[in-house]
Design goal:
Number of helices: 16
CATH class of the largest domain: Alpha Beta
Shape: elongated
Structural class: alpha/beta
Strand order of the largest sheet: 2-1-3-4-11-10-9-6-7
CATH superfamily of the largest domain: Class I glutamine amidotransferase (GATase) domain
Number of domains: 3
Helix content: 25-40%
């Protein structure tokens, strides 16, 4: 078929055939082949209906994947990271060099905002809380969702469940085992947990139970520490059910199934995996390949011979320098918002320090890929020379720096009551600064539109204009050129004012935005800030912009390195 299509493309572009097409009628003499080329063309005309076959049409139609993440309700940081998992999956599949043609949608909050998108899904993946003492903790058991899901399964949609979402009430045994083969069977209620299925956390080498299964193409046994759920309730004598992954629980001598696949009578497919507790597991290549293979397999696609390849850069680290600011800037709230904004990129792990000078003196900043300046020494002294040199050397040697809002006002000789504040070198790193002795000012805090410029840059590629509530800074001081990646129209100057730009200092990268007066302002600019932070940290951008509402609704959990409510 491909060879015939190639011949057809050449033939359709020929001048001779264009002449044929322009004829409204054909005489017998005109149709009589005069030479070998004409005979070939007439033969190909008879093959056109075969070339434009249903097979070629279906091959060009991408499989549709609906990824659903439940809301984060608890567990320590870097565990049960449902939202980050979905973002990573979408990014890995969309950036894969050998994934088949896929159309991927990501949905957060436990269910699509428009459930109609499920009608065209070839497979649905859920990672979320599951039924336990409260059945409604599982997104499938709220409102009319189970009925909607049943409609999708009845029409032949695939399904894939990860970790806690494999918990299901026994009253749905028949449906769940038909769709996905098995589930975690628990005892409902607050009393002693005399459950059929079991939970333990340990490290084990994951065994490939059915090595020739398509889900395991290119996958080798791998070591994985996880919160494993096992002793799963499977449907008995199911000819379409196969174990895929097994581990040996510490209290058992025989391996137990923790990953399984089912092919239903209607040809649709299901896969369940009880691991996935820890976010860091995604950086284990065989773990990641296995799960990406499973997603593609449940769509009905063939899995490539060596499995789905994925380009996932190592996790990178960000340190937010904060702890002092103008009284009108609530640095605790804005720092909290910044952590969640930059962690919209699930490859990023953000920390914060409230004593940046001390931190720079006592730590090696090169342990971090990015420093974010959310600090201004308002009515306080500047940093000593060693701390200044450490920041400057860090950036020039290749470190990333992001400057947020009034972070551009630090270390300026015009700062009120700031002794020994002047640091000229800071103005070599930060190209636009607030000058209290000059014309620097801002519109009153309020609503305005941020417009993404036409400048082609990884930070703004694919981003759209957005509304915000913020202070619109204008007439910031600085002589070095900047190219606005985003701008807004000032009500005071009546001109477009640059809101964000990026540039290089030595081997380092600097991203600066004048947005970010409040935590609300940070949330509204979260996608721009996240993309700027990713670029400054020398990372490739995500293939899409996760909804900024993820950052807005994020919570601080146990294990967070910094919290806004700390004394």
């Amino acid at each position: 078929m491909q060879n015939a299509q190639g011949i057809t493309n050449i033939w359709l572009s020929s001048t001779l055939f264009d002449k044929f097409l322009k004829m409204k009628t054909f005489s017998r003499d005109q149709l009589a082949p005069k030479n070998g080329l004409q005979r070939l063309m007439l033969a190909l005309i008879s093959l056109l209906p075969l070339m434009i076959s249903s097979e070629s049409i279906s091959a060009s139609t991408p499989k549709n994947i609906a990824l659903i993440a439940g809301p984060i309700t608890g567990h320590p940081k870097d565990a049960h990271e449902y939202e980050k998992t979905i973002t990573l999956i979408k990014h890995c599949l969309e950036s894969s060099p050998n994934a088949p043609d896929l159309e991927i949608s990501a949905h957060y909050g436990g269910w699509p905002i428009e459930p109609e998108v499920l009608n065209r899904a070839d497979t649905i993946l859920l990672v979320s809380d599951g039924s336990d003492q409260d059945e409604s903790m599982h997104p499938f058991y709220r409102d009319d969702r189970f009925a909607i899901l049943k409609q999708q399964m009845d029409r032949g949609c695939g399904i894939m469940l990860l970790h806690w979402s494999t918990f299901h009430p026994a009253r749905h045994h028949d449906d769940i085992t038909e769709w996905i083969g098995g589930y975690f069977d628990y005892e409902t209620g607050p009393g002693p947990r005399k459950w059929f299925s079991k939970i333990q956390t340990w490290e084990d080498t994951v065994q490939l139970a059915t090595p020739n299964h398509p889900i395991l193409k290119g996958v080798k046994p791998f070591k994985l520490k996880d919160e494993y759920y096992y002793n799963i309730k499977f449907r008995k004598s199911d000819p379409g059910l196969l174990p895929v992954l097994k581990v040996t629980p510490p209290d058992q001598t025989q391996p137990d199934t923790v990953g399984w696949a089912v092919e239903r009578a209607n040809g649709s497919r299901g896969f369940g995996f009880t691991g996935g507790h820890f976010h860091d597991s995604w950086w284990i290549p065989d773990f990641r390949r296995m799960l990406l293979n499973a997603i593609v397999w449940t769509t009905g696609h063939d899995v490539p011979e060596l499995g789905i390849e994925s380009n996932l850069s190592p996790r990178y680290r960000t340190m937010i320098l904060t702890g002092n600011n103008h009284p009108a800037h609530d640095w605790r709230k804005t720092t909290a918002a910044l952590i969640h904004a930059v962690e919209l990129d699930p490859r990023n792990l953000a920390h914060a320090t409230e004593s940046p000078e001390k931190w720079l003196l006592e730590n090696d900043p090169s342990d971090y890929d990015l420093l974010i300046m959310n600090y201004c020494n308002w009515k306080s002294s500047g940093w000593n020379r060693e701390a200044q040199e450490r920041l400057r050397n860090y950036v020039e040697a290749g470190g990333g720096l992001a400057v947020i809002h009034f972070g551009n006002g630090a270390f300026h000789p015009s700062l009120p009551e700031a002794k020994n504040s002047d640091w000229p070198g800071y103005r070599d790193l930060v190209r636009r600064v607030w000058d209290h002795h000059g014309d620097s000012a801002h519109d009153p805090y309020g609503d305005f539109q941020v417009i993404i410029s036409q400048v082609k840059h990884p930070i703004t590629r694919g981003l759209k204009n957005f509304g915000t509530t913020d202070e619109l800074y204008f007439q910031q001081a600085g002589k070095d050129p900047v190219q606005a990646l985003a701008y807004a129209f000032s009500k005071v100057t009546r001109k477009p004012e640059p809101m964000a730009w990026a540039y290089r200092v030595g081997k380092g990268r600097v991203f600066q935005t004048l947005l970010g007066h409040s935590n609300k302002s940070i949330h509204q600019a979260a996608n721009l800030i996240q993309r700027g932070a990713t670029w400054a940290a020398h990372q490739k951008p995500l293939t899409f912009a996760p909804p900024r509402t993820i950052a807005q609704n994020a919570i601080f959990r146990n294990g967070s390195q910094w919290r806004p409510d700390q004394p």
